[in-house]
Fold this protein.
Amino acid sequence: MRAYALLALAGFRRYSTYRQAMFAGLAANTTFGLLRTAVMVAVVGAAPKAGYDVPTAVAYVWVGQGLMAFVQLWGDTALAERVRSGDVVVDLHRPWHLQAALFAADVGRAGYSALVRFAPPVVAGALVFPFRWPEPAAWPVFALSALLALTVCFGVRFLLNAGTFWLLDNQGVMSLWSVMSSVLCGLALPLAFFPDWARTVLWATPFPAIVQGPIDVWIGHGPQWTTLAHQVFWAVVLLAAGHWVLGRAVRKVVVQGG
């Protein structure tokens, strides 16, 4: 456990060194947050829609902007690149479980993102627009939900990257994930705006657990414990699936070109 704690600390320190990249990402988050807020306010401004009034819609946008970076919805290709280069062989010989080591480092990265990429956009949105804050009792539940969202997103990203053991190049899979995830996770628009049948189908998948679930806890939509149970279920399933896939993958380590 001490090794994984050190890996988490190393992940925090690693991303804290890329200050310009983090602040550039913060600027991009804030800019797109302003654009998305204008659209959402126009949609619900005349009359509330699916339980979203203006303060709730504003909170949805800015909490979603922060969660997008916190869970690292896109851009995680480190494992895939190490598989393609063959460097993953070194990782597999180190005294750790590769999946657990990557998750520990991701927790450290998320800790830094919470300080730089989550809190500032949320505060900026609250200062400029009417904003809905969670009830005091909901803060610890939201924190737990955000951690579960990180776990679920890591589980999906790990499986997508682990596919490189067989595909050698998973850029097509990652591109498909980038296109689909923003809609299916509830980032592009609230899942409550979807038809009933689409919501039913999506809530049978892990996608809402990544973004929509924590947002629902924040704005108080639906039973909190139902949302947490959904997240816990998919976190366990995806981590177990990743463990199984890794076990199969180590029997098929192929260095591209050799």
Remarks:
- DSSP finds twelve helices and no strands in the chain.
- The CA atoms of residues 4 and 101 lie 6 Å apart.
